[in-house]
Amino acid sequence: MPHISRHCLVSAFVVTSFVVLAGCSAPDPMRLDSTLRLDGPVTVNMNMQMEGPASRYTGTFVSEALFEAIELKETRIEWVIATFGEPDRRADTSTGGEYLVWDYRADTVQGHPLRLTGIGDDENQTPSSMTVTLEVVNGIVLRKWRG
User: Fold this and answer.
1) Is residue 14 part of a domain?
2) Does 19 reside within a domain?
3) Cβ contact 90:98 at 8 Å
4) Per the confidence metrics, is the pTM higher than 0.90?
5) pLDDT tens column, 63-111
6) 20 to 30 Å CA-CA from 20: which of 37, 85, 87, 142?
7) Backbone phi, then psi, for 129, in 5-degree steps?
8) What is the CATH number of the domain that holds 117?
């Protein structure tokens, strides 16, 4: 009886499988009801999808840099509104001025994958809520608060 190499047997199995599968009209799962031994390196491909945190927020976020750009008793309210947008609330002061308020709030945050594992940069995170308030008299910013 002639000797048949293992390579020839595997090739015959693969060709036979393709011929049998080519005749199938319905998508059926392919099963192998025996042990299959693979000698040598096996390449495995994995696809992973990572997404960043999902956040929804309302209001206007005023960064520290923009807040610090407001110079008391010099910055005009026209510049502030052009930069920040219209305030969320306004209220008159007892001295004839006006308070302008911008609110920012994160409504939902699904955790950042690295922070959930205890790894992450807590220093550079956007706060979950913040309010910026300016006191304006005669169109000039007199006082400011952020917190």
Assistant:
1) no
2) no
3) yes
4) no
5) 999 999 999 999 999 999 999 999 999 999 998 999 999 999 877 666 5
6) 37
7) -155, 150
8) 3.30.1450
Give domain status of residue 106, yes or no: yes
Question: Using a CB cutoff of 8 Å and minimum separation of 24, what contacts does 111-115 make?
Answer: 111/53, 112/52, 112/53, 113/50, 113/51, 113/52, 115/53
DSSP-assigned letter for residue 125: P
3 state SS of 8: helix
Q: What string of DSSP letters covers 71-103?
A: -TTT-BHHHHHHHH-S-SEEEE-TTS-EEEEEE
- CB of 59 within 8 A of CB of 88? yes
Summarised one tens digit per residue, pLDDT across range 18-31 is: 545 555 555 677 77
Domain that holds residue 75: 57-146
